[in-house]
Amino acid sequence: MSTLATPAANAAQKASGTPRTEHFNVLIVGAGISGVGGAYHLARQCPDKSFVVLESQDGFGGTWRTHKYPGIRSDSDLYTFGYRFKPWMGKPIATAEEILSYMGEVIDENGLAQHIRYRHSIESVSWSSEDRMWTIEGARNDTGEAFRFTANFLWMCQGYYRHTEGYTPQWKGMDRYQGQLVHPQTWPEDLDLTGKRVVVIGSGATAATLVPAIAGKCAHVTMLQRSPTYFITGRNANELADQLRALDIPSEWTHEIVRRKILHDQAVFTRRCFEEPETVRKELLAGVRAFLGPDYDIEKHFTPKYLPWRQRVAFIPDGDLFKGIRDGLASVVTDEIETFTEKGIQLASGDVLEADVIVSATGFNLNVLGDIAFSIDGKPLDFAQSTTWRGTMFTGIPNMCWVFGYFRASWTLRADLIGDFVCRLLKHMDDKHASVVVPALRPQDEGMKMQAWMDEENFNPGYLMRGMHLLPKQGDRMPWRHTQDYWSEKDELPAADLDDGSLVYK
Ligand SMILES: Cc1cc2nc3c(=O)[nH]c(=O)nc-3n(C[C@H](O)[C@H](O)[C@H](O)COP(=O)(O)OP(=O)(O)OC[C@H]3O[C@@H](n4cnc5c(N)ncnc54)[C@H](O)[C@@H]3O)c2cc1C
Q: Of all atoms in ligand 1, which is nearest to the CA of residue 36?
């Protein structure tokens, strides 16, 4: 339940043109998989805390609502991309629609709808040390009406990229192109590809999903890549889950057992990528070869220059991308774009790709803190100047956590871990009668070597490299590291000492 200012105060605010203010203990930004998970954990673990979730879109789902391109699906299995607390019953790789329906059940089963306000775009957030709380302001997307909330704690579940617009590089001659140029993030609902020649620029997970989804539905689709990506192929089924179901094992058990098996297998795979990268590389390429046959130029089109796992390895269920190529419905070109022409793309090799539609599957614009103007005691916040506390809190920023999930494991594994952490922290603050918590470097941390938010040697997709300078830094020791390692964090975060001096309470 929110606390409203007094009717007299609200009437005075209305007369002065400022919106009425509602107060909550916790305000969650975003109703994607992280925000809905956060709401679940708060409702369960801190039932005495009032909270609200503000979401700019007109429904929940975040990523899975924003993206509407053909074939949109997860590339993680839903046993681990699903929440720890809600068994996944479908095939491991799920469509956006299936994920939305799963999230809808979580909302319904736990009475979360009453806490979510849609069409609320947050524009500014400011912290007052005097009042010991945040003021959150913005405008409704539908009515344009301004809103204002205050909250003691801010739980940032806004994701990591701008939802309104994807990233399209500027290529020479783009303005000359007479066909249709689209980005998967803003896919036109009425786009009819029947009989069209389509070029998809890029070879990440989005391109690998889109190409098989439209192959056979358009005249031809070409995946144009500057350099190849690793893919892993397999059936869209989980044998262990199927066996457990056949034995009528309760779904909660099946969910937990299958999660553990998948996480174990992933840990083994990740370790092997570092210990025996050449062997793993050969295995991945053999998987592709099995679909494309001995004569296909795998060396040119499917052998990346980097070692496996430096970027996310996209899973291709049932090899559908390769089947399209094998059947001649899709093809791959590995080349550089020289210039766009009236009719398509001229490549550095001199070849020309004519296209009626060009899809720029070239990734995201990283956004920092939901593109919200943050200030602390009237001073604009420069997020890049702060140091992270375990990749979720930040020096100099009181009463705030951010859910930035895993890239090598499912995002939601971290959303659940941070859910537990936030609830533990809130209870700890209550126990200490503290209303403020802020990470601060201790004397022994002075002079610590600072590093980028993500280790660039370790993981380096384009959108992160383009935006790394805007993100906070990490230190060289705990609790100032952002490890992106589920397998250590699953034990370390729940056991983290909240009184080791790195968190200052007031
Ligand atoms: C196409 C695609 C496929 C992916 N597949 C996988 C996968 O298979 N496995 C995996 O682990 N990860 C995947 N990811 C990464 C994915 O983004 C995360 O896994 C996860 O969905 C992020 O959830 P989130 O709730 O943290 O953020 P988001 O899904 O980005 O949701 C954030 C929400 O916050 C809202 N918001 C942002 N700013 C504001 C504001 N100022 N005011 C109000 N509301 C705001 C947004 O509208 C949005 O609804 C994929 C990403 C994409 C783009």
A: 25
Domains of the chain: 7-163+366-505 (3.50.50.60), 168-362 (3.50.50.60)
**Measured distance CA(223)–CA(360) in Å, rounded:** 10
To test the pocket of ligand 1, the residue of 77, 118, 148, 158 to mutate (highest count of ligand atoms within 8 Å of its CB) is 158
Whether the full predicted model's pTM is greater than 0.85, yes or no, is yes
Q: What is the DSSP letter of 75?
A: S
pLDDT in tens, 413-435: 999 999 999 999 999 999 999 99
What's the gap in Å between 34 CA and the centre of ligand 1?
8
Residues with Cβ < 8 Å from 98, sequence gap 6 or more? 78, 90
Residue 112 pLDDT > 90: yes
Compute, in angstroms, the gap from residue 158 CA to the centroid of ligand 1. Answer: 7
Strands 220-225 and 330-334: parallel
For residue 461, is the peptide bond before it cis, meaning its omega torsion is within 30 degrees of 0?
no
111: Cβ contacts below 8 Å, ≥ 6 apart:
43
Find all residues with CB under 8 Å of 192, minimum gap 6, and list them: none
Phi, psi (degrees; rounded to nearest 5) at 322:
-75, -30
Cβ–Cβ under 8 Å, residues 343 and 354: yes
Please list every protein residue whose CB sits less than 6 Å from any atom of ligand 1: 29-35, 54-57, 62-63, 67, 74-76, 81, 121-122, 157-159, 163, 206, 370-372, 403, 405, 410-411
Side-chain half-sphere CA neighbours of 394 within 13 A: 22
Which of ligand 1's atoms lies nearest the C-alpha of 72?
1
Distance from the alpha carbon of residue 88 to the mean position of ligand 1, in angstroms: 19
pLDDT single digits (tens) 433-457: 999 999 999 999 999 999 999 887 7
- Atom 16 of ligand 1, residue of closest alpha carbon: 63
Residue with tokens 């300078």: 469
Supply the DSSP symbol for 368: S
What number does the ligand 1 atom closest to the CA of 407 have?
Answer: 11
Distance CA 239, CA 250 (A): 16
Name the packing angle between helices 251-275 and 486-495 (round to 10°). 120
- Residues 478/378, Cβ–Cβ less than 8 Å: no
pLDDT tens sequence across 458-501: 666 777 788 888 999 999 999 999 999 999 999 999 999 999 99
Distance 356 CA to ligand 1 centre (A): 31
Buried b (16+ CB within 10 A) or exposed e, 332-353: bbbbebbebbebbbbbeeeeeb
Residue 437 bridge partners (DSSP): 505
Cα angle vertex 161, ends 384, 227, to 5°? 100
How high is the mean pLDDT of the chain?
Answer: 94
